Amino acid sequence: MEFELIKQWLVQLAGKYNVNPIIFGSIYLGAIPFFTASVAWLIRNIRKKKTIILPAFCTGLTFTSAYIYLIIVGRDVPFWVYIIIGIMILYGIYTTYRKIKKQLTDQEGM
């Protein structure tokens, strides 16, 4: 019952703001393997002391792809949504940084 209410709420919001929830969800979930691969690529380049510009860019792009879709396609999206997106992006940067740092220190300790 609760799932159905959440689903109805999301569909109503999607229609109101011109965002297709299936596309948004597909981008969000579809980006996960690419995000994981780009983080691995980033860590590998850090370890090998190679440039991290392209892997860091790919990591950021895959993490924000669904939000970029919302910003480009959405209409009349309230300002607070942009604040939430900003907070989520900042939190994602923080947790990704911690994950990379942990993996690097774990490898150094072995």
Explain what you see.
With 110 residues, this protein is mainly alpha-helical. The protein has one domain. It is built from four helices and no strands. The longest helix has 31 residues, at 79-109.
**Helicity, as a percent range:** over 70%
Distance between the first and last residues' Cα: 49 Å
Q: Low-confidence stretches at least 5 residues in length (pLDDT < 50)? A: none
Give the helix/strand class: mainly alpha
| Main sheet: strands, sense, barrel | none
Order of helices and strands: HHHH
- In round numbers, the mean pLDDT is 87
User: Radius of gyration from the CA trace?
Assistant: 17 Å
Q: How many helices?
A: 4
Beta-strand segment tally:
0
Produce the secondary structure layout.
Blueprint: H1 2-17, H2 21-47, H3 53-73, H4 79-109
Helix pairs in contact: 2-3, 2-4, 3-4
What characteristics describe this protein?
110 residues, mainly alpha, 4 helices
Short description:
The chain is mainly alpha-helical and 110 residues long. Helices cover 86% and strands 0% of the residues.
